[in-house]
Amino acid sequence: MKTGRRKVFAVLIILLLIASWTVSFTGIGDKFENLGKQLKYGLDINGGVYVLLEADSKETGTELTAIMNQTKSVLENRVNAMGISEAQVSIEGTNRIRVEMPGVENAEEAIEQIGRTAQLQFFLADGTLALTGEGISDSQIATDTQNGGYKITIDFTAEGSDLFADATEKAFSGEVQPSMTDESGNVVQNTAIVIALDDEVISAPTVNEKINSRSCEITRPGGFSETEASQLSALIRGGALPANLTEINSSVQTATIGANALQLSVKAGAIGLGLVMIIMLIIYGALGFVADIALLLYIQLVLWIMVAMGSVLTLPGIAGIILSIGMAVDSNVIIFTRIREEIAKGKSVRVAVDMGYKAALGTVVDSQTTTLVAAFVLYLFGTTSVKGFALTLMIGTVMSVITAVFITQLFVNLMAESKTFGTNSMFGTKEDGSPKVKLGSFNIKFIENRRKFYAVSLAVIIVGLGFMAFRGLNYGIDFTGGTMMQIELGKEASIDEVKETIADFDLNPTIVYASDNNSQIIIRTIKDLKSAERQEVVDKLQEKYGFDDSDVLASEVFGPTVGKDLRNNAIKSILIAAACMLIYIRFRFKDWKYGLAAVAGLAHDVLVALSIYAIFRITINNPFIAGILTVVGYSINDTIVVFDRIRENTKFFKRKQSVELIDTSINQTLSRSLMTSLTTFVVMVPLFIMASSELRSFLIPLIIGVFVGTYSSIFLCSPIFYELTKKDGISKYEDNKAKADKARKKANKRRDDEGIRL
Q: What is the pTM of this model?
């Protein structure tokens, strides 16, 4: 692209950046709302109710799928009839349905309403009840050869057949005075049989004769479309659904926790972002300014893409955005590091920019692709909250590559072509090419000291396994099953007093304070309390402390089967992610040893993370899955950068010994690894300090993941790669040298035996 066009594009990008941030804060009059109002927020921010229901059905395969789909349709109609805006009903797994109802205040009533069995009823036109769904045995669709299209068939039980015969006889007589309305709001004909599901009319066909048989058909001129017939048939069949829905997981939250958490998260994120931008300016000079422009644009792209996709922003999603900011900075750090390396070799700024980008592009794509794989697996197998984290991380990872490769490159090329900005000084280097500010000059003997690193890791893992064996892991109620309630009592109360107040319920609870003035408490118990049972506990506490229903800030229940699924999904996610990464690395690096070393590092990271949780008794709950997958994604990201440098150095230094080659490669990338980890921590620390306990529970495993991932990529994965390749030899020189040393030792031994050692 010519310089003139680059300048035009650069100006357009700056204008777009200014406009997007302005619109994000202010909107455009009354026609276009600001970003905060256009984003959709999860229950943990807006408040509301979600419930996870499990269908008790013996059916499997396609039959179970059909039952779940018709149940979903019934529940969708039910929440819509309740007037709940933006309610979501989704199938999870094979036999579970999650219902999310933002803004609902009466949780007990809502859960009872959606969980009851579907009420299918048949009325005469005057509102007289003819029969219920108990008289229906089945409903299917069939081709309507007479009218074209499709028709609906209904099969009755013996009792249902008799009731339907009486109803059709009365309807056909024409003596019924119609008072009911159809689904369009029009008064039905006097010969109609009105079919209603949960008191909502879904069809009002007319009868032409008395139907005295075990089945009937619903037809119309021109026939039904396949979609219309399938939906109506599913709703009719749903009225006779034999499967009961059992509440296995539910949560009730007020908007207070979410609103405060959102405000604090935004402030903390802004502080972290500001610190990162300052660090980039200090370390990279004018290049850092370019990175800051790309970073500001990156944030806008991520948030507005979420708006366009209709994605729901949750507190875990905010954590995903924060982590992806660190990944976005990493892409720029990789590129800037390579450019400055080329400048240090004596190349001009223009040449250094061109060569630096070419050298860094493959590393950026490889490192971010592996993170994307981990996020994708997490999205596939995670629960709803973890999906929010994974989705924002995926969007952020893709946008970080786009902004680093295209936006940053555009501005850096313009700088390089400018007489004013195309100087070593503007690129953060001295006249001799050395960095003005650097994290250090490293010449660490990693391979020589590898056994020390092995010993440290092994010690942590052994101690952790010991704690797991004798004390066990500290599983939260997400895994064990149980109930959690967070309540604002309105005044300071002692924990012993609260325990005594609810002692009759035999909960054996764990109670902690959740506010500075000790007026807000969190009650946890491993007992699985249903909605009505939770309300009894609340009523007892209300008698004692006199708080309002709105002071029940959160109420959640987790069935024990949910915890089992979480563990299984976590293991499945890690194995699938590791397999995908192994395949990708083998494809990109043309050598399975790179992939094996990287996967070995992942196994180490997971074990160390588990050991840290075991040693310090950190609660293992839903966010722990996100933390483990972050370990996987972040660790492999760092490892790929190091391996990419080893691969590159192998090409250019054929005769260099493997020990020196690997040590040199790690030392060359060490400043980049430290810089990336530093910026990621800088973003997370303010959030950890200022955010709510809900978001902090997601940040703890992320922080552990970043630390452990950085350690293994530097100190373990490359040494493991050395162990795998030292017998094969990385170079012919080393192979020949090893053979010569072996031959010399044999010769010396023979001479020793003969007493003539030289």
A: 0.68
